[in-house]
Amino acid sequence: MRYFKRILAGIAVCAAFGVAHADVKVGVILSLTGPAASLGIPENETVPMWPKEIAGQKLDVMVLDDASDPTAATLAARKLITEFKADILVGPSVTPTALAAMQVAGETKTPMISLSGGGAIIEPQEGPRTWVFKMPPSEKIQLDLVFNSMKKKGEKTLAIIGTKDGYGQVFIDQAKKYAPEAGIKIVDIERFARSDTAFVSQALKIMATKPDAVFIAAAGTPGAMPQLELKKRGYTGTQYQTQAVANNDYLRVGGKAIEGTLMTVAPMLVAEQLPESNVIKPVALSYVKAFEKVHGPGSRSLFGGEMWDVSLFLDHVIPVALKTARPGTPEFRQALRDALENVKDLVLTQGVYSMSVKDHNGADSRSQVLVEVKDGKWKYVD
Q: Contact 275/337 with Cβ under 8 angstroms?
């Protein structure tokens, strides 16, 4: 009897040791191919920079490519949760794929940190959205910067261009809501699909309304197409973009046609140019230096920065979740979700975040600055 008691005690000790050192499994879904690859590739390049363990727990990371396709994103999310047994999902890269993966996250009660910007991913906070958090700031924060810039320039009329997806639609809806408050009149709204190869008819309609400025809500290199066509048609007004196009591929594809473009971006993109008083500057510079040491000068990307910020989130919430549950259990997934919901004043490369039950983004106005494309580079404006 004493012999069997010693065996059982040994089993208990081994079990406890296994719990203490269980892997935390992170399932990552990115657009490594397809129209949004210019976002997913730098995100993927940042993953090797993540810590190998947090709070004594090894991070076991699996990355799957959704090819910028919502159906593939759904399949990837389901595989990561059912086969890989992911404790948390990260990604996808763009709004349409994130909305697809969101349904699986909610169904399986798995927390998900989305890298895409569409507010529809987290609003309204009900159903599957209660399990999802997103990195890019709210559309209102970005639009406020655009409208303030327009007012300073004396611009009063605006044409809006949005992709035919959740990302484009939410910006259109928010612009229609807040433009009148800023004294801005929307004179035209045009749409295009990410896979479109022409923007001729839409450009002609915009030219006919003669707007003071054009605002484009698109992601990746497809966002350059409307600007190329408007430039060809002789449009000379101000053109605004969101940070969803802020990468070197956009600069390459747009060339001289996008010179002078203004866009709202996370501070990390112009880390060296930020005022010394900016609390984000040291965090952003640390990532930029580490990334560019590996990938070369000027290789930084906001999307890679978002992926680094995910690791900072994980470093913050995993120790909290471990106090109440062990990895690989529903209780641990719930604890991670609850810990994310209670993040306060966390400084990242992209901004300062404080989340709540009602706000699963949490980025404040410090999450965006205004930059200009000048001589093929990003120049800090405000």
A: no
Q: How is 23-45 classified by DSSP, letter by letter?
A: PEEEEEEE--SSTTHHHHHHHHH
How many angstroms separate the CA atoms of 14 and 7, rounded?
11
Summarised one tens digit per residue, pLDDT across range 149-191 is 999 999 999 999 999 988 899 999 999 999 999 999 999 999 9
- How far is the CA of 151 from the CAs of 145, 158, 212, 333, 379, in angstroms? 10, 12, 11, 46, 20
* Same fold across 2-137+293-365 and 139-265: yes
Task: Say if residues 211 and 153 touch (Cβ distance below 8 Å).
Answer: no
pTM of this structure: 0.84
Helix ranges restricted to H, the chain: 2-20, 37-46, 70-82, 95-108, 139-153, 166-178, 200-209, 224-232, 248-254, 281-295, 302-322, 330-341
Q: How far is CA 2 from CA 7, 10, 86, in A?
A: 9, 12, 40
DSSP designation for 121: G
Q: 1.10.3720.10, 3.40.190.10, 3.40.50.2300, 3.40.50.740: which CATH number matches 2-137+293-365?
A: 3.40.50.2300
298 HSE (CA, 13 A, CB side): 7
Task: Assess whether pLDDT exceeds 90 at residue 70.
Answer: yes
Assigned CATH for 139-265: 3.40.50.2300
Residue spans per domain, the chain:
2-137+293-365, 139-265
